[in-house]
């Protein structure tokens, strides 16, 4: 009798666990606790060459991927024990808040608005909003030349917010991902794509002679590693790892590797902000 009841309870608990998993219910453990268990789930971009890219064979490459691997290594987690999850711009805060990822390394600018929902380690890189146009374009020379132009950016991103607020003359269109914007730029449906220079440089390098970076950055985008709000332990450990990556030379060599042949100038590394 007792065994049957225990069995029934066990099956019930299993069913509840299955439902929770099916609903995408995240874990309540912190990033540091998951790392101590030897596994991490990290949010990255899947479609940004040089930054976070999922290759056809299912492997991942780019600076954010390398930063994630370096940080995971410092937390004691091997690269093969990292599960990479796609983190589109508009979903990043939610993924962290729901515990669906341990942390996010996805060209994620530190902003006061986002800090109301998540915390940031870093910055580990400083980018600037820029414009990408077709190679034969001569009239889009900077953000003040966007009057009446169709400009594509991504929902939930800081470049889209900036265009909406400060460049009202531009005809802004927002898509879910930058790769969709790039398609539209190539087809002629859009006149420009706007986001961070380092992201645009990656796309330009993939389409030489077809796309070009305007190369007039007009904002400062400090890339942080998003963690759950209030999880100081994980944030401190990630900050230690970012500092180590910069001081031991891996930061520079990794950027040089990820942007080899693109002509992209590697900037000076940032100073970690332990707010
Ligand atoms: N760094 C900007 C942001 O966090 C643009 C890049 C992106 O959307 O990932 O919104």
UniProtKB/TrEMBL annotation:
Domain Solute-binding protein family 3/N-terminal: residue ranges: 39-258
Family from the record: Belongs to the bacterial solute-binding protein 3 family.
Gene Ontology terms: biological process: amino acid transport
UniProt signal peptide: 1-22
InterPro entries: Bact_solute-bind_prot3 (IPR051455), Solute-binding_3/MltF_N (IPR001638)
GO CC terms, sorted: extracellular region; outer membrane-bounded periplasmic space
Protein's name according to its UniProt entry: Amino acid ABC transporter substrate-binding protein (PAAT family)
UniProtKB keywords: Signal, Transport
Upper taxonomic lineage: Bacteria, Bacillati, Actinomycetota, Actinomycetes, Mycobacteriales
């Amino acid at each position: 009798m007792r065994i049957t009841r225990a069995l029934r309870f066990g099956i019930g608990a299993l069913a509840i666990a299955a439902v929770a998993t099916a609903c995408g219910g995240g874990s309540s453990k912190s990033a540091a606790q998951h790392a101590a268990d030897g596994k991490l789930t990290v949010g990255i971009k899947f479609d940004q060459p040089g930054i976070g890219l999922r290759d056809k064979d299912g492997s991942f490459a780019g600076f954010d991927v390398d930063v994630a691997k370096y940080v995971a290594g410092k937390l004691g987690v091997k690269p093969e024990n990292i599960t990479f999850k796609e983190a589109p711009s508009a979903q990043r805060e939610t993924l962290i808040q729901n515990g669906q990822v341990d942390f996010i390394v996805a060209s994620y600018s530190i902003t006061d608005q986002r800090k109301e929902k998540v915390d940031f380690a870093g910055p580990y890189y400083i980018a600037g909003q820029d414009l990408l146009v077709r190679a034969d374009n001569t009239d889009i020379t900077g953000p003040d030349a966007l009057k009446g132009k169709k400009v594509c950016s991504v929902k939930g991103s800081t470049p889209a917010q900036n265009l909406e607020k400060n460049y009202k003359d531009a005809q802004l269109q927002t898509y879910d991902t930058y790769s969709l914007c790039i398609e539209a730029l190539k087809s002629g449906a859009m006149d420009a794509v706007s986001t961070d220079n380092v992201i645009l440089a990656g796309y330009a390098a993939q389409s030489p002679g077809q796309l070009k970076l305007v190369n007039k950055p007009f904002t400062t985008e400090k890339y942080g590693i998003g963690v759950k709000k209030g999880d100081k332990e994980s944030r401190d450990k990630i900050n230690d790892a970012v500092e180590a990556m910069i001081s031991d030379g891996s930061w520079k060599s990794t950027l040089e590797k990820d942007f080899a042949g693109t002509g992209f100038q590697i900037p000076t590394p940032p100073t970690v902000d332990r707010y």
